Amino acid sequence: MIEDRPQNNGESGAGTDEVQAALYLFPVPLSDSSRIADVLPEGNARLLRGIRHFLVENVRSARRFMKRVDPSIDVNLMSFTVLDEHTRPEDVARMLEPLENGEPMGVISEAGCPAVADPGADAVAVAQRKGLKVVPLVGPSSILMALMGSGFNGQSFAFNGYLPIEAGKRSAKLREMETRIRREGQTQIFIETPYRNNRLIAELVKSLPGQMRLCVATDITGRGENITTRALSQWGKTEYDYAKVPTIFLLF
Amino acid sequence: MIEDRPQNNGESGAGTDEVQAALYLFPVPLSDSSRIADVLPEGNARLLRGIRHFLVENVRSARRFMKRVDPSIDVNLMSFTVLDEHTRPEDVARMLEPLENGEPMGVISEAGCPAVADPGADAVAVAQRKGLKVVPLVGPSSILMALMGSGFNGQSFAFNGYLPIEAGKRSAKLREMETRIRREGQTQIFIETPYRNNRLIAELVKSLPGQMRLCVATDITGRGENITTRALSQWGKTEYDYAKVPTIFLLF
Q1: Which of A42, A143, A151 sits opposite B42 (nearest CB)?
Q2: In A185-249, which residue ranges form alpha helices assigned H by DSSP?
Q3: Which site among B23, B36, B47, B148 would you substitute to test the A interface, given the most A Cβ atoms closer than 10 Å to its Cβ?
Q4: I need a surface site. Which of A94, A126, A181, B38 has the fewest CB within 10 A?
């Protein structure tokens, strides 16, 4: 379908709403309080206007996203297929039929970048297997922006998702992260269900060396954005309240 | 200087060129062939216009970046301080003096996101230590965009920087990555000096299991952008040429 290394094949592209057939991955703002012009390139809107078929984590929030990007978009002309954590992998291939027939498609998750700590990777994997073109677009990633703002090592880092809940596995994971910081100088990034954020910080203060540094990055791009790095011993003496706010944690 | 969790403190912000004092991290386009409007939010230009003091990896490319974002910017009014891999850590604190005096500052690296596989983390670390506000901005990251486009696990991933050059350490690193893919399901991301890209692919084909998948993501956001995932056994039977093009490698 798509050659290995497409040369400039004479497509007109830029400036028109004619969009080349590919699976476009659309990042979505992280916060309701950020301005679109501060978090998304204007070019993403042009692509959005040129695509009819979308795989979305949630139809309502995808429609809201489109309206926010461009109020003139008629969302009733779009076709939405839900792709979320309940989607059966064997159903994903069929969802890409429009793309196989030469029509561009979009992937939209609820916040941040599709396929990174969010659904979408399955659809990308199928597209790759079928030799279909995949095009990631620029937009906000709380993981990457937290790393930038932490001051920690950006030459080597790992994102671990959620920490395990079960006590034994959880402390084993903390020990593993501690080891990888010490031996490899690898920044460790993870997340927690927001209502447990405060408890997690207290737990880190209790179970890890006091000189280890913790960065807490909260409400990135939102009105309450705050990225604060301190030694764990300092966190233990500080008052904080991160309950209910989407937050990224980094250790180094 | 900055309170822990700044409430809305009545700053006017949006729409004017009055910029709050903070260390702003400006991503830079990855490719000369990408349109600014496709890779940077328009809001970044507004901030750029409101800042006078910059820490830059390279003065010439920083000036070119500014001119590309907004040809009306008078780069001769800007002050540039070089912050690169030769900067002594003890000199970084002094570079942040304008910010300590209440003036906003910017960090600009040569391509991609400051402080991620690029200089800048030292300045951020000092700012964090001094309690100065740090604000990462949205822009292209080849690492993140390669991950999005790979179809690999985005719930757990590690960026390893360059592989070691020395043969023993290099094969130990490959074995370690193989283990982390198998045991932890952790996507492994790394880079190579562009002129060695082709040799690296041949080496991976030779030394790792054939069913392991390799994604090669090249010239991201550029005219030659190509993100291709295949089993290593398939890569072994394919012709490719990635010499001289900035490329991200991912294994899963």
Answers
A1: A42
A2: 197-207, 232-235
A3: B148
A4: A94
| Cβ contact A241–B155 (<8 Å) | no
The string of pLDDT tens digits covering residues B41-62 is 999 999 999 999 999 999 999 9
Contacts of B161 in chain A (CB under 8 A): 155-156
Of B121, B149, B154, the CB nearest to A153: B121
Q: Which tens digits make up the pLDDT trace of B65-84?
A: 999 999 999 999 999 999 98
Calpha distance B200→B211 (Å, rounded): 17
Paired residues of B188 in beta bridges: B158, B251
pTM listed for this prediction: 0.92
CA distance A88 to chain B (A): 16
Tell me whether residue A193 is exposed, middle or buried, using C-beta atoms within 10 angstroms of its C-beta: 0 to 12, 13 to 18, 19 or more.
exposed
- A100's CB contacts (< 8 A; 6+ apart) are A1, A130, A132
- What is the spatial distance between Cα B248 and Cα B201, in angstroms, rounded to a whole number? 11
Contact of A161 with A52, CB cutoff 8 Å: no
Would the CB atoms of B5 and A224 count as touching at under 8 Å? yes
CB–CB of A116 and B148 under 8 A? yes
HEC states along A117-149? CCCCHHHHHHHHHCCCCEEECCCCCHHHHHHHH
Among B71, B250, B20, B44, smallest CA distance to B140 is for: B44
Measured in angstroms, the CA of B41 and the nearest CA of chain A are apart by 4
Q: Looking only at Cα atoms, what is the longest distance across chain B?
A: 62
- ipTM score for this prediction: 0.92
Of the partner residues A113, A129, A149, the one whose CB lies closest to the CB of residue B124: A149
Q: Over the stretch A55-101, which tens digit does the pLDDT of each residue have?
A: 999 999 999 999 999 999 999 999 999 998 888 888 999 999 999 99
Query: How many CB atoms are closer than 10 A to CB B126?
Result: 19
Residue A141 · residue A116 · CB < 8 Å:
yes
Conformational region of residue B172, where left means phi above 0, alpha means psi within -120 to 50, and beta covers everything else: alpha
Separation CA B33–CA B106 (nearest Å): 24
> Could you give the C-alpha distances from B141 to A185, A196, B114, B247, B248, in angstroms and in order?
21, 30, 10, 12, 11
* CA distance to A209, A216, A232, A234, per residue, from A206 (Å): 8, 16, 9, 12
